[in-house]
């Protein structure tokens, strides 16, 4: 799965002021990502506000994205949830044209046991014609998929090829990297830890801040891959504050505001998310100006 190595971005879903999908801006954002050097795109991950989109809207976004990319860079589709039977059906119905893999989040809200998580992914793996990327993000799901469960899945199912890890546990990352089968890869799911994760052996990141600063994220990952950690560290530290500000009032409200300041769509989000407040806006503007002067 060379397609999912390097810098990937979890695309936002732009909305018009009335809340409808802004496909014109989505096309602009896709071109921006490709021109600035992103290695691959993820359509409808968490950052895409997928939970607020209807089934028909998701299909429209996936098709539009594939048609716009036209095979220029790899595409991953986010298809996950806490109703296993529903996710199995969605994957059966998914039009794979233009896509190289599926990213599927560990079941949230239900708080299943590790065996429940294993059986959930087993059911998905049985029907997926595309390789699967596991996604562990305990801060959102309410439960951690342990290294043991990740490794069990990686060893038992040849079409489970990677994990996007956002647990923040370096002991967990290390255990996965130490004991994983050949070909299975670890991907950073959290921008601020991409550099140290890649130093351990992760192959890249699926980024949020990359929506607004794709060139910088792509360069950071490239420097890490080339072992140029001093240069990578400089980019890493430059992006820390703006990345933190993206999450102060909920993702993707922050990064959508940054994009709006770069004339890439508006900052509309769908409820229950709301636009960021004036205090965060002021901080983001200050940080954006600093990054502009630093040529980031």
From TrEMBL:
Extract the GO molecular function terms from the UniProt entry. 4-hydroxy-tetrahydrodipicolinate synthase activity
Subcellular locations according to the entry: Cytoplasm
Active site per the UniProt annotation: 135 (proton donor/acceptor), 164 (schiff-base intermediate with substrate)
Q: What is the lineage of its organism?
A: Bacteria, Pseudomonadati, Bacteroidota, Sphingobacteriia, Sphingobacteriales
Pathway membership, UniProt:
Amino-acid biosynthesis; L-lysine biosynthesis via DAP pathway; (S)-tetrahydrodipicolinate from L-aspartate: step 3/4
Whose protein is this, by species? Sphingobacterium yanglingense
Name the enzyme's class. lyase
Please identify the protein, giving its name as recorded.
4-hydroxy-tetrahydrodipicolinate synthase
Give the family per the record. Belongs to the DapA family.
Protein's UniProt keywords contain Disulfide bond: no
In this chain's numbering, which residues are marked as the site (L-lysine inhibitor binding)? 51, 82, 86, 108
How this chain assembles, per its entry, is:
Homotetramer; dimer of dimers.
Which residues are involved in binding pyruvate? 47, 206
Superkingdom assignment: Bacteria
């Amino acid at each position: 799965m060379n397609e999912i190595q390097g810098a990937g971005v979890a695309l936002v879903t732009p909305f018009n002021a009335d809340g409808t999908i802004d496909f014109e801006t989505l096309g602009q954002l896709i071109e921006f990502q490709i021109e600035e050097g992103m290695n691959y795109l993820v359509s409808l991950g968490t950052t895409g506000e997928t939970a607020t989109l209807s089934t028909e809207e998701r299909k429209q976004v996936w098709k539009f994205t594939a048609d716009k990319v036209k095979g220029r860079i790899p595409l991953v589709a986010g298809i996950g949830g806490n109703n296993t039977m529903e996710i199995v059906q969605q994957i059966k119905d998914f039009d794979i044209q233009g896509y190289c893999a599926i990213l599927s989040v560990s079941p949230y809200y239900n708080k299943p046991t590790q065996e429940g998580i294993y059986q959930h992914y087993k059911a998905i793996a049985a029907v997926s014609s595309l390789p699967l990327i596991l996604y562990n993000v305990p801060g959102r799901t309410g439960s951690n998929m342990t290294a043991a469960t990740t490794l069990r899945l990686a060893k038992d199912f040849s079409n489970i090829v990677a994990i996007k890890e956002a647990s923040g546990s370096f002991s967990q990352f290390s255990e996965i990297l130490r004991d994983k089968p050949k070909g299975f890869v670890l991907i950073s799911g959290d921008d601020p830890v991409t550099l140290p994760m890649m130093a351990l052996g992760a192959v890249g990141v699926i980024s949020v801040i990359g929506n607004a600063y794709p060139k910088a994220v792509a360069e950071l990952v490239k420097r890490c891959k080339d072992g140029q950690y001093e240069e990578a560290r400089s980019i890493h530290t430059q992006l820390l504050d703006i990345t933190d500000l993206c999450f102060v009032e909920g993702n993707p409200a922050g990064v959508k505001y940054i994009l709006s300041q770069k004339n890439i769509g508006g900052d509309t989000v769908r409820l229950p998310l709301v636009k960021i407040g004036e205090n965060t806006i002021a901080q983001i503007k200050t940080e954006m100006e600093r990054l502009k002067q630093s040529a980031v």
